[in-house]
Design brief:
By secondary structure, this protein is an alpha+beta fold. 27% of the residues lie in helices and 22% in strands. It has helices at residues 48-56, 78-95, 132-142, 179-188, 216-219, 224-236; strands at residues 5-6, 40-43, 62-63, 110-121, 124-126, 146-157, 163-174, 209-213. Strands 1, 2, 3, 4, 5, 6, 7 and 8 form an eight-stranded mixed sheet that branches. A hairpin with a 5-residue loop joins strand 6 (146-157) and strand 7.
Length: 237
Amino acid sequence: GTHRQRLLSPPRRHSEARLLSGMAPMATSSSPTANPQPFKLILGSSSVARKNILNEMGFEFQVMTADIDERSIRRKDPDELVMLLAEAKADAIMSRMNISDYQKEGDQPTLLITSDIVVVHEGIIREKPSSKEEARQFLKGYSGGHVSTVGGVVVTNLTTGKKLGSLDKAEVYFHDIPDEIIENLIDEGVVFRVAGGLLLEHPLVLPFVEAVVGSSDSVMGLSKDLANKLIHEALLA
């Protein structure tokens, strides 16, 4: 179930951000795995957060980027928008591949995982801020309030052609965020690369996160539970 997880004291280091998700840090990859991963995995995203999440999950994967014009795909409904964008990313990557290479007899299956996330604040879809003014307006709006995130994840089995997708939602509640912190974040510039300018795990932001309902990895771009479920199902598809 989803319950508000309260942070009693703000984490002091970046690495402690994962406490938010209520998950123990994963074992380091130095311990050899008993059996190698029985499939190939491609992450269709250049997002550092998504790479980190798949690494934490213990997967081996390669990265390919979709390079689609996200703003050319418009929908009022966030659920519909993120699924369309995640599918469009998969289609763009597949269009550059020779799919028959992945369908040879006896080869390991290859899965492609793509995803998209939007932030919804007071019923309005927030994408990457396009100006300092817009970033400031977004962040001031979150101060003392809350936002929802809607993430769409699509896993395509390139070997069978089957495609599975699903949604994951979370909410983030904020304490009041001082103007000085907002200006620091804008000057640093990283807010312009993320949906809604929302950086849950950023050391400047984390102390002002009151609670997360749902999983923080979902807020950061990819729900581990959902990714695991879809990968498992795609291997059977």
